[in-house]
Amino acid sequence: MDQIEILPHSPELSPFFKSINQAWVEDYFSIEPFDQAQFDRPEETIIQPGGTIIFAKLGEEIVGTVGLHKVSEQEYELIKMGVAKNAQGKGLGMILAQAILEKAKEMGGKKVVLYTHSKLGPALRIYQKLGFKPAELEEGKYCRCDIKMEVEI
Question: Which Pfam families did the record assign (predicted)?
Fold first, then answer.
């Protein structure tokens, strides 16, 4: 397998953030207004408020992405982790998740939370392997999420 390269966000990569994530969200759920805002304006909705987005490049192709949304000075939310269909099953989800947790530490984070759904088995296995534990799910945070997890970093 080609070497996987993790790239920081740049405006030129934003279309991949949208295309990769929109594909899986539409496969399993429906696009909500907050999704559309993040897809259309990632710099404004994620980066400027103190978050970040990273990308996985395999060969010459961008095949994965994940973001961090800043919750507070020491807490981040892992958001929009997706891998292109043609690159799934190669361990990219784990690589992206590990890289974004390292990024959260670099940014001063002490805890990372995430919201997900029980039907996303491969993602749940990644989160569990990385030490995420179940947390109390707030009512009405996200329509499609039935699980909240968190990890101290």
Answer: Acetyltransf_1 (PF00583)
